[in-house]
Inverse folding.
């Protein structure tokens, strides 16, 4: 299944990297646990593989599937989403200046604050929805890479990937896009001009809250791809074969799950947006959302992540989170079960999320039950 296939995403999700096993005809792929592969006396490769940390057949299938779904030229999978982010950022030369979103996954913020400066890489937080601000940050000093996340965590801010890719190109910067919330089912950043797409496959790809993983998909197999691949080989943050296999299994049902996730989220957002206890619903599918028009242009649907801000502030947020029965209080997202989290409570000593905010991952339960749960909790 080539990355340039014209088949529909749902078909690609089922068939990419899914050829029956050549040896046995098994329709489900084998899990190759071998750490080492036979070679000739002078190290001649016989199968294309040498050592699991460098590459293995189960990982290859997943990378083929991810590159195909994102429309990229190649993919690299990692032990976690954070390992994937580090894989890109640590491949930048010392002295690099990068732009990161003002609203983003907390791990990226920690990486930028604690670890990148040790390598003399400096991150500047910018509102990626404010294109003149991004342009100004690029004009002020050379930028090696612009990192975007759309929709973003936890405010669901939307940025215009095509416009940002034009700014990045004009300034000789790479554009990397965290596509975890949208998945390639809803948004394909490579087709919008991104150079690298990142996923925490822990979320929607895995889909069942039981497998950690991360991925990078590259628009080109160029020197940068080789650098990141070589770093992964040597630094070792690789995905275990069993985790690759579980993630591959998640790919098969990803489009079907996303359709129901999105339909549920839309219904829940409509209900919450009219509830008197709620001040604000951050969901790009709502016409009132600041990024709605851009999301409508670059996404095929609006995803199943949202956050709500309660009129009663922190106290009302905690009380609501405590009363919900079907929404489990837990971090993470993208599983079958609905989750809710008071982000400010889990962000450590210096929380950045508003105290009145709850982040919601809308699951695959029946929507009437989810709405009824909020009805009883929001009193
Ligand atoms: C979870 C997440 C990450 C980090 O991924 P891990 O698999 O937990 O390391 C990065 N970005 C976003 C948007 C996420 O939701």
């Amino acid at each position: 299944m080539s990355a340039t296939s014209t088949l529909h995403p749902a078909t690609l999700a089922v068939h990419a990297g899914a050829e029956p096993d050549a040896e046995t005809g098994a329709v489900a792929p084998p899990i190759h646990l071998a750490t080492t592969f036979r070679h000739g006396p002078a190290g001649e490769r016989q199968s294309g593989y040498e050592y699991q940390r460098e590459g293995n057949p189960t990982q290859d299938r997943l990378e083929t599937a991810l590159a195909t779904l994102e429309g990229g030229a190649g993919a690299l999978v990692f032990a976690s989403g954070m390992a994937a982010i580090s894989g890109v950022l640590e491949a930048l030369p010392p002295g690099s200046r990068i732009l990161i979103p003002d609203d983003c996954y907390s791990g990226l913020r920690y990486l930028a604050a604690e670890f990148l400066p040790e390598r003399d890489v400096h991150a500047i937080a910018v509102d990626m929805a404010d294109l003149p601000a991004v342009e100004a940050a690029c004009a002020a000093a050379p930028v090696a890479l612009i990192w975007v996340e759309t929709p973003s965590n936890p405010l669901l801010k939307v940025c215009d990937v095509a416009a940002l890719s034009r700014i990045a190109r004009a300034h000789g910067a790479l554009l990397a896009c965290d596509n975890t919330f949208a998945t390639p089912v809803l948004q394909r950043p490579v087709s919008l001009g991104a150079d690298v797409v990142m996923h925490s496959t822990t979320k929607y790809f895995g889909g069942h809250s039981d497998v950690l993983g991360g991925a990078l998909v590259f628009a080109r197999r160029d020197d940068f791809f080789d650098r990141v691949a070589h770093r992964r080989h040597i630094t070792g943050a690789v995905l275990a074969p069993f985790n690759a296999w579980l993630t591959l299994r998640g790919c098969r049902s990803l489009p079907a799950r996303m359709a129901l996730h999105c339909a549920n989220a839309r219904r829940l957002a409509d209900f919450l947006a009219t509830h008197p206890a709620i001040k604000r619903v951050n969901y790009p599918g709502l016409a009132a959302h600041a990024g709605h028009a851009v999301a409508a242009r670059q996404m095929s649907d609006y995803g199943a992540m949202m956050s709500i801000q309660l009129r009663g502030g922190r106290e009302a947020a905690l009380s609501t989170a405590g009363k919900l029965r079907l929404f489990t209080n837990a971090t993470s997202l993208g599983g079958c079960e609905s989750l809710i989290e008071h982000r400010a409570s889990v962000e450590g000593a210096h929380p950045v999320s508003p105290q009145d905010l709850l982040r919601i991952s809308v699951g695959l339960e029946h929507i009437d039950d989810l709405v009824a749960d909020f009805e009883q909790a929001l009193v």
